[in-house]
Structure formats: C-alpha cells, structure tokens
Design brief:
By secondary structure, the chain is an alpha+beta fold. It folds into two domains: about 220 residues, Acetylcholine Binding Protein, Chain: A; about 140 residues, Methane Monooxygenase Hydroxylase, Chain G, domain 1 (Up-down Bundle). Helix content is about 40%, strand content about 20%. The protein contains eight helices and ten strands. A six-stranded mixed sheet has the order 3-5-6-2-1-8, covered by helices on one side. The chain is rod-shaped. Forms serotonin (5-hydroxytryptamine/5-HT3)-activated cation-selective channel complexes, which when activated cause fast, depolarizing responses in neurons. It is found in: Postsynaptic cell membrane.
C-alpha cells in the first residue's frame, strides 16, 4: 500500500471517528441541527454511513400494493403501482433533541445522503413514476424513504382457467451491487400486515383483487458472492363478472337458440337457412369478442376451447339438418321403396329405443266403390256402360249404337289414364309418408344425441369453473 493510500484511509477513519464521537451541533435560537454541522455528512454521501465498515447496514423494506395497472398475457408482464417504504440507519445523523429546541425529525434531500440500491429483480422496464426527493431523518439517525414505484415486472401468467384465473407473481427485493457483507435486508412489517394494508386499497380497484401477500428472506448465491434478498409472492385473482356477462351468457343464449331450432319442421328448408344464419352470427360474435380473450404462447384458455367446441356443435347441428333434409326429399323424389333393413333398424328398434311417439294418422274416408265398366252387353257394335253392382238394365234399341262407339272408347281411355295417375299419386304419397317416418325418427335420435353431448360438455365446463372458484 502506498503512502498516499494510507493517508486517505487514515483521513477517512479519523473523519468517521470524529463524526461518530460527536453529535450534530445546534445553535441557540435555531431549531434543529445547523447546516454547517451536516455539511460533513453531505460531503460523504458516496460512502456507506457506518462507523465500522465491517458491520452491514440493515435495510427494512415494506410496500403497499395500491393498484394493478395491467396484465399482458402475451408478453407475460404485470404492471403494478406500489407505495414502497425503506428504512435504514445513518450513524452520522445523530443529535440531541434537548439541545436542538426539541426537534426530533427533519427532512433532507435524498440526493445528499447515501441510500441503499434496492431494486426489484423482476423489473423489465424503466420506472416512470414520480420520484420523491426527500427523506425523513429522526434524531437517532433512523431514515425513512417513501417511494412511489410503477413496477413493470415479468410474471409467469397462467390463463388456462380464464376468466376464473388466479395469478401468483414474484417480487424479489435486494441490493444490486452490495453483497451480504455490506447490506442486509429484512421486512419492516409482517407479511400479513402488508397484505391487509394492500387489500384496503385494492378492495374496489379495477379488474383484479388481492388474495394474499406471502414472503420469505433468503440468500442469493452467485459464484463466491452472496446477496441478501426478500421474495414476495403476490397472489391476485381476476373478477370474472365482466367476462361472464359479455362472453359466456351471449354464447349460452346462441347455443340455446340452436337447440330450439330442432323444433322447426325438418322437412322445411327454412331450418337449414336458420342454422346457417345462426353460425354466421356466432362467428361474428367471436370476432368481436376476440379482443377480450387473452393470448399467450404457453397455452390456450379453456374459454377459447369452449367457444371452438360450441361452434363445432353448431356445425354438427347443421350437418344433421342436411342429412335429414336429404332423407325427406331426395329419396322420396326417386320413388324408392324404404329398404327392409331400414324398416327394421329405424322404424322398429330405434323408434322403440328413443320412445318415439307416432303421430296420429288421419284416417281416410271409406273409399267408395268404384264403378266398373260393364262392357259385356255389346251387340251390333253397341257398348252398354253401367255399374257392376246394379242389375243390368234392359238392352236399349240396337239402332244407332254404332255411331257413339268412338266417343265411348275415348272416354274409357281417359278414365284409364286418370286411374293410372291416381294410382301413381297414391303410391308416391305412401312412399313420402314412409320416408317422412324414417326422417322423423332419425331427427329425434340425432336431437337426443345432440342434447346429450351439449349437456355433458356443459357439466364438465361448469364443474371445472366451480372448482376453480372454490379454490380461490
């Protein structure tokens, strides 16, 4: 060690001894220590205020969580506003209140004094909050520094249970440069007191509410150096009312309308049009509500899966309508008989399985007896038309009968064509009724399966959310 370095160290030690052995002086008629007596302390603002530098300076830390300003799930950043309070001991700022007109506390500019370099290790942005330029110092040298801190910190956000999610973020306070040999940190209040004070301010503040503040002190090792730190766990819970009203309830209404659309006549094309319009409306709803849903690369919230499944169920519902419409119209228009296996499987077993109640068939009036053409009595080219049920009348005169024969033949041809057309219509009506019965049974079956899927899905989602609510 050079002589110049020895002289500097000796001078510092002499100054420390002189400061520790002498208190700040006060002039008669003046309140508090004089500026001259504190100038020596101000000149040593760059040095840690300890008489024995081998003894660490103890810094007490407490904070009040005043507001949760924002949660960015995509960038995994939590923005909060804290009222931070630091306490430490300045061994050179000591005076006797009796000699200083009873003054026990004064305020001094923080830039004139040494202050511990306490930071939050999770800090990811500059502090843009308003700085407090003064500290309070009492006659024993105890300093209190209140700071307003806008804290932008990294936090591992888990949004799977959104909007009933609960976040646990970590705030780690410690010195940036001073190791455990120079600065020690400890909580100024108990963690329960910090939590109680914060809840008082966050009780009616914004989207988030404070659940609890926990913490512990520990030692951070990096190589051969050690730092004293305090780790706080801030547990916050989201208030889900906004998202339940704006997301879940409208989606549930649209799903309810989709279920009620099964009561529309399945043979009507308006049912398919209605379902397509409903799907379009649900898609627009998802696009509008997309800004309210959190997005992150770590996973997808269950509410996003819920919306996707709801949309898929609506598409399945439309597909069911398309199938039933095809059964009711396409097959009946081809005049195809219902296959025997369809009669057995659908109209017998499936109908009994789902307890399908057949609609009351309208009984057709008794078919009148058809007048058959009796053309047996023909003589000399004369055709006699009379009902088969009646007693044959006497033969009319044979004269002039040949003149009406072409007209009678044409009438018989017309009657035959009419009978064939009526028979074809009757057969078509029977086929249409058969396929309608098949379509109604299948529609009832698919409707019950659709209701079962939606009910199971709703029970699973509601149960999961109820568990999360109870856990919070």
């Amino acid at each position: 060690m050079s002589p110049s370095q020895r002289s500097i160290i000796s001078g510092l030690l002499l100054m420390s001894v002189s400061l520790c052995c002498s208190k700040l002086s006060c002039k008669e008629g003046h309140s508090g220590p004089t500026h001259e007596s504190m100038q020596a302390v101000f000149d040593r603002e760059a040095f840690r205020p300890a008489v024995n530098l081998s003894n660490p300076t103890i810094t007490n830390i407490s904070f009040t969580l005043y507001a949760v300003l924002g949660v960015n799930e995509k960038t995994q950043i939590l923005t909060t506003f804290l009222w931070l309070r630091l306490y430490w001991q300045h061994e050179f700022l000591v005076w006797d209140p009796d000699e200083c007109d009873g003054v026990i506390k004064i305020s001094l500019p923080v830039k004139k004094l040494w202050s511990p370099d306490i930071i939050v290790y999770e800090f990811v942005d500059d502090d843009v909050s308003q700085a407090c330029p003064y500290v309070y110092v009492n006659h024993t040298g105890h300093i209190r520094w209140d700071r307003m801190l806008r804290l932008v910190s990294a936090c591992n956000l888990k949004i799977f249970s959104f909007p009933f999610d609960m976040q646990n973020c970590t705030f780690t306070f410690g010195s940036y440069m001073h190791t455990i040999m120079d600065v020690r940190v400890s909580p100024a209040l108990t963690f329960q007191e910090m939590s109680r004070n914060s809840k008082r301010y966050l009780e009616a503040s914004g989207e988030w509410e404070l659940v609890d503040i926990l913490g512990e002190t520990s030692i951070l090792k990096f190589g051969v150096d050690e730092w004293d730190i305090i780790t706080f766990w801030v547990v916050i819970k989201r208030r889900p009312v906004l998202y339940v009203v704006n997301l879940l309830i409208p989606s549930s209404f649209l799903m309810l309308i989709d279920i009620l659309s099964f009561y529309l006549p399945p043979h009507s094309v308006d049912r398919a049009s209605f379902k397509m319009t409903l799907i379009l409306g649900y898609t627009v709803f998802l696009l509008i509500m997309n800004d309210l849903l959190p997005s992150t690369a770590n996973g997808t919230p269950i509410i996003g899966i819920y919306f996707s499944v709801c949309l898929a169920l609506m598409v399945i519902s439309l597909l069911e309508t398309v199938i039933i419409t095809n059964v009711l119209h396409h097959n009946s228009m081809k005049y195809q008989e219902v296959p025997n296996w369809v009669r057995v499987v659908v109209l017998k077993h499936i109908a009994n399985l789902i307890c399908y109640r057949w609609p009351e068939e309208i009984k057709a009036p008794a078919e009148p007896q058809k007048d058959e053409l009796d053309i047996s009595n023909v003589d000399s080219g004369l055709w006699i038309i009379q009902p088969a049920s009646q007693t044959p009348a006497q033969d009319p005169p044979r004269s002039g009968g040949a003149a009406s024969l072409p007209e009678l033949q044409q009438i018989c041809q017309y009657l035959g064509d009419l009978r064939a057309h009526l028979t074809s219509k009757h057969k078509e009506s029977e086929l249409l009724d058969q396929w309608c019965h098949v379509g109604y049974v299948l529609d009832s079956l698919l409707f019950r399966i659709y209701l079962l899927l939606i009910s199971c899905y709703a029970l699973v989602i509601i149960s999961m959310w109820c568990v999360w609510i109870n856990q919070s």
